[in-house]
Design goal:
The chain is α/β, with parallel strands linked by helices and 274 residues long. Helices cover 30% and strands 16% of the residues. The longest helix has 19 residues.
Length: 274
């Protein structure tokens, strides 16, 4: 498999599903010094996200773009040169190969394994815009059941900031299931930090977007990942069929942005979050 997977690229739908952390590949010439067991953990990739992404693309009859380079090599959802972009330590695991990187090493990783993914997204969006179409971007991620000793009760999280055209109908549909604990801007908050990909490609351009976070033990098996892809696609089909969605949003994606929103807040799944 190549490091960058273009799935169903011939589809003409004005919707692209993306997976920043679809794989845990370490390209030739890069030595991270990380045990394969650790690389297979959440620090290396988003477990289950690739299967969900492809299933959603199948069901929505749209293309998908999946990045298979491990986030430990370079995280496409972090601005390059931030500490989290090429982490020296990730969830307690030391990454020796990211220590004391030379400027040439940093540049090689940016050019080889960061820019190609983002250029592919930008080219797809640009082609739609040149055709007079305002496209939709859907990002799929997964998260651990526990982090820093804190349990995360949500099976699924819907992240938004500003533009809620996709987030609201997804939240409404998911919360109708009494067996689901649904996180609105949980376990990470779009109000605090949406990450690089959605910020750069969707919020900056005011195109419809949403980020989905699925708990990894919900999608770590093929059958459950496919089921979640179906569930999410079922909710998105009527939303994507509305022609009024495909417009540039005229609101402010930074309006009401708080100084600090910590993910440890509101860890219970009360009736207000279901």
């Amino acid at each position: 498999m190549t490091t960058l997977e273009s799935y169903r690229p011939d589809r003409e739908a004005a919707c692209l599903v993306i997976a920043d952390h679809a794989g845990r590949m370490v390209p030739d010439g890069i030595e991270l010094g990380v045990d394969p067991h650790d690389l297979a953990r959440h620090i290396g990739w988003d477990i289950g996200a690739a299967t969900v992404t492809r299933r959603m693309a199948d069901r929505l009859d749209c293309p998908a773009l999946l990045n298979h380079v491990s986030r430990l090599v370079i995280d496409p959802n972090r601005r390059p040169r931030l500490a989290a972009s090429m982490p020296v330590v990730s969830d307690g695991t030391v990454v020796p190969g990211n220590r004391d990187l030379s400027e040439a090493d940093i540049q090689r990783r940016i050019r080889g394994h960061f820019l190609p993914y983002h250029r592919a997204i930008a080219r797809w969006i640009g082609a739609k815009r040149r055709a007079g179409i305002v496209p939709v971007l859907i990002a799929v991620h997964s998260f651990t059941p526990r982090m820093l000793g804190v349990s995360r009760p949500w099976q699924v999280g819907v992240l938004w900031r500003g533009d809620r055209r996709l987030a609201d109908p997804l939240l409404h549909g998911l919360k109708r299931d009494p067996h689901l604990c649904v996180g609105e801007n949980q376990p990470y908050s779009g109000l605090q930090d949406f990450g690089y990909t959605i910020n750069f490609h969707a919020q900056r351009n005011h195109i419809p977007h949403v980020m989905l976070e699925l708990r990894q033990n919900e999608i770590d098996r093929t059958e459950t990942a496919l089921a979640w892809g179906d569930r999410l696609a079922d909710l998105l089909v009527p939303v994507l069929a509305d022609p009024d969605l495909y417009r540039v949003w005229d609101g402010d994606n930074l309006e009401g942005l708080p100084a600090v929103t910590h993910w440890r807040q509101a860890v219970s799944c009360s009736s207000s979050t279901r």
